[in-house]
Design brief:
Helices cover 40% and strands 19% of the residues. By secondary structure, the protein is of the alpha+beta class. Strand 11 and strand 12 form a beta hairpin. The protein is elongated and about 105 Å long.
């Protein structure tokens, strides 16, 4: 959430930032609502001051034996006027909040200007795509042939775009979760968390999924709870409403959760296989840090996510998201895209973002510097470390063999009891 004072004083800058994102907002309505709000506050304050002064006058008149009925009647009218103005102020504040909650974050000055993903600059490519002496198959065909993936039976159980793993496939998914968590905790210094898989409305509002993206969420019937869309939500909200001490920062959390997303508006896009599912597993990285260190922490987070792919020896590229492709809460984002041989394309497997103080303002997460009384907002960061189902897909496609088997990356074999390949 953007600070109301910042919005008031920087309407042109915000308008330009929104234009760079390819978006618009009701900034004229904001100006009108904000002017009305300040006028209402000024009038209410004046009337309350008048009422307080009159109360002293009424008391003095009564003590002197004078008739205070006229002044008392006037104050009853003032009281009625204050109540009416307070109702108007509440309606005005609701309108103002609707505008403020709908404003996305301001892109960092280093973010390249562009319209969509086609304008995202590639920063680096790591690893060589494998060369096959046969036509590589897509992971859904490999998984079906190995009898480790079954999307048809998953659809019977639930519906389209839900996965069903068997045997070595289920074990591979579990091994990857353990491998990623072990690397992030033991090698990268994150603290492991096992959070709730259900979150409340407040938590989703704090991280920016609500109110704007309600259609992407799965809501529990008869409860004001939602299935978690990403572990970013519970991890960021661990310190909701708290003031942290400077020497406790930075805080690094990692967690595995299943993730549930309706993927509204994406029907017909990447619907085959494990790329875009309504339910998928993910290992998430979240950081809370001081403003001056957040961009260094973003680079470290990116390296941590890349390290998983390097250890698995999967080829990938890193792109920087342009203004038109940035997420709602992000000020700057890097995407890591893994090579998928059958499709001959790089697919996103991790997204690492610095949200600066955008989420912290919503969640009221602050810190106090040594020797200072005033608390400041922290900066929050989040990243995938990695999307597990997509990692399974990348392993199946990049490590497939001519005989239909799939080689297990060496780094992962200890998590599979020494298994070296999944064979037909």
């Amino acid at each position: 959430m953007l600070e109301i004072k910042f919005v008031r004083q920087n309407l042109l800058e915000i308008q330009n930032a929104l234009a760079a994102r390819g978006q618009t907002a009701e900034l004229e309505n904001f100006r009108d609502c904000d002017d009305q709000r300040r006028g209402l506050l000024l009038e209410i304050e004046g009337l309350r001051h008048r009422r307080n002064t009159a109360s002293e006058q009424i008391a003095a008149m009564k003590a002197a034996g004078e008739n205070a009925q006229t002044l008392m009647a006037e104050m009853r009218e003032v009281g009625s006027r204050v109540k009416a103005l307070e109702k108007s102020l509440a309606r005005n504040q609701e309108q103002l909040n609707t505008i403020l909650w709908g404003l996305p974050n301001i892109p960092h000055s280093s973010v390249p200007v562009g319209r969509d993903s086609s304008d995202n600059p590639r920063l680096r490519t790591v690893g060589e795509p494998p060369r096959f002496e046969f036509d590589p198959k897509p992971h859904w065909e490999i998984g079906s042939a190995l009898q480790i993936l079954d999307f048809d039976r998953a659809a019977k159980i639930t519906g389209a775009r839900f996965p069903l793993y068997f045997g070595p496939g289920a074990r591979l998914e579990r091994a990857l979760i353990n491998f990623m968590l072990e690397v992030h905790t033991h090698s990268h210094g994150y603290r492991e968390v096992l959070p709730p898989f259900i979150v409340n409305r407040q938590s989703l509002t704090c991280t920016g999924q609500l109110p704007k993206f309600a259609e992407d969420l799965f809501k529990l019937e008869a409860w004001d709870y939602f299935l978690v869309p990403t572990a970013e939500v519970p991890l960021t909200n661990i310190h909701q409403g708290e003031i942290l001490e400077e020497d406790t920062l930075p805080i690094h959390y990692t967690a595995y959760t299943p993730c549930f997303r309706s993927e509204a508006g994406s029907y017909g896009k990447d619907t085959r296989g494990l790329i875009r599912q309504h339910q998928f597993n993910k290992v998430e990285l979240v950081k809370l840090t001081t403003p001056e260190s957040s961009y260094g922490e973003l680079e470290t987070m990116l390296n941590d996510a890349e390290n998983i792919l390097k250890r698995l020896q999967l080829p990938y590229q890193v792109v920087e998201l342009c203004t038109g492709d940035l997420g709602f809460s992000a000020a700057k984002t890097y995407d890591i895209e893994v090579w998928m041989p059958a499709q001959k394309v790089y697919r996103e497997i991790s997204s690492c973002s610095n949200c600066e103080d955008f989420q912290a303002r919503r969640a009221n997460i602050r810190f106090r510097r040594k020797g200072q009384k005033k608390a400041e907002l922290v900066h929050t960061l989040n990243g995938s470390g990695l999307a597990v189902g997509r990692t399974v897909a990348a392993i199946l496609e990049n490590c497939q063999q001519a005989d239909g088997s799939v080689k297990i990356p060496a780094a992962l074999q200890p998590y599979l009891g020494g298994m070296e390949k999944i064979a037909p």
